[in-house]
Each structure stands twice: as structure tokens, then as C-alpha cells.
Specification:
- This protein has 6 helices and 11 strands.
- It is α/β, with parallel strands linked by helices.
- It has one domain (3-207): Spore Coat Polysaccharide Biosynthesis Protein SpsA, Chain A, CATH 3.90.550.10.
- The strands form 3 sheets. Strands 1, 4, 5, 6, 9, 10 and 11 form a 7-stranded mixed β-sheet that branches. The chain has a two-stranded antiparallel ribbon with strand order 2-3.
- Helix 4 (148-154) packs across helix 5.
- The longest helix is centred in the C-terminal third of the chain and has 17 residues, at 191-207.
């Protein structure tokens, strides 16, 4: 398979208090750390979307940024990995696990996911109205892998409520599978999340 990656680093970081991708973890900017890992995993090329050296200008929404990144993917690419720079602890092992499942050839996309461990409640205002069965629920991460042609077609859908690329592919009838994600593949959303990521990184250093 010819595989490329798009690293999305264009968010404004409103909840974080500023652009997250420019923060450093272990002395390396979040977006650059992601790029380095994708290269080490052997992908053919990496497109970064955001205000970074060599980056493609970001769009207004996340999906607009992904669409701009897709425009830079060569026509002969088979699969593309979409990853958020806000997940700087992605590993080559996770990338390879996603691509190994994709290589089976029976799906249009693969997402890493973790089982939901918290009890989930459905609410109406401040009232709890039901307990949601979590047995068949997972929390998804990135990188998410897609057939390039399928994802490009999915991005033609006019939708503002899709929270990830997998949701767009679902709406086109695409077939998706999931593989085991990694607890350390945390998403930096709030300032305290960066502290959590630093703790995971320190643990890796101690065990390595």
C-alpha cells in the first residue's frame, strides 16, 4: 500500500488558551513530534495543515483543514492517515496496527479505539433520564486510516456536525473497522492534559 498522512495542526485552541500545536513536549513541538513518528513508521509522505514551517493553510473547521490536506495527497496514494497534532504521543506501533487492519482489504477505514469504562448517562437539561449501555461503545482516537478515494468523496458531503472523518465516511455507506488504541495516545484539549502527556512521556523514558 502507498500510504500518506495528514497531520491537522490548525486549531485555535480556545479551550487550551492558545494554539496547542506550538507547545512543546520533551522539547519538541507537538506537530513535529507527530510528523517524526509517522516518518519512523514508514509512510511515504506527511502533509501538515496549519501555521507551521512547510504547512498547508488551515481551514475554518477541522474538516476544512483535512480537505485541504487531502488536496496535497498524490493521486497514486492508496490510503491516508488523518491525525490530530493534539495527540503527540502516537506511536509507530499504533500506526502499524491501524495499517495492518487496513491491509486486509475488506474495509474503507480503520480507527483506533478504547473501551468505555465510565458509566454513561443520557440527560435532558440537568435531569438524568437514562443509563446508556456501554457494552458496545468505544472512544475513538486518531490516526484514522481511509482509502483516499473514499475519504475524498466523503468530504463532499455538506455536514457541520461530523466530529471526525469516520463520521463522514459512515454517511457515505463506507465500511469501518476498529483496532485497539493506546491509553497514552491522549488528546491535548486543556492545559492539564499537557501535564498528563508529560507524565506518560516520562514513564516511557523510564521504561526504555
Amino acid at each position: 500500500m502507498k500510504v500518506w498522512a495528514v497531520v491537522v495542526a490548525g486549531g485555535s485552541g480556545v479551550r487550551f488558551g492558545g494554539p496547542k500545536h506550538a507547545c512543546t513536549l520533551g522539547g519538541v513541538e507537538l506537530w513535529r513530534r507527530c510528523v517524526d513518528v509517522f516518518h519512523s513508521a514508514g509512510v511515504q509522505g506527511v502533509v501538515v495543515v496549519g501555521d507551521v514551517p512547510g504547512g498547508v493553510p488551515a481551514g475554518e473547521r477541522r474538516r476544512d483543514s483535512v480537505a485541504r490536506g487531502l488536496q496535497e495527497i498524490p493521486d497514486d496514494a492508496d490510503w491516508v492517515l488523518i491525525h490530530d497534532a493534539a495527540r503527540p504521543l502516537v506511536t509507530p506501533e499504533l500506526i502499524n496496527r491501524v495499517l495492518e487492519r487496513a491491509s486486509n482489504g475488506d474495509v474503507d477505514g480503520v480507527v483506533p479505539a478504547l473501551s468505555v469504562t465510565d458509566t454513561l448517562k443520557q440527560v435532558d437539561g440537568d435531569r438524568i433520564v437514562a443509563t446508556v449501555d456501554r457494552a458496545n461503545l468505544v472512544a475513538v482516537q486518531t490516526p484514522q486510516a481511509f482509502r483516499v478515494a473514499v475519504l475524498k468523496a466523503a468530504h463532499l458531503i455538506d455536514s457541520d456536525d461530523a466530529t471526525d472523518d469516520a463520521a463522514l465516511v459512515e454517511r457515505t455507506g463506507g465500511v469501518l473497522a476498529h483496532v485497539l488504541g493506546e491509553p497514552s495516545n491522549v488528546k491535548i484539549t486543556f492545559g492539564e492534559d499537557l501535564s498528563v502527556a508529560r507524565a506518560y512521556l516520562a514513564r516511557r523514558s523510564d521504561s526504555g
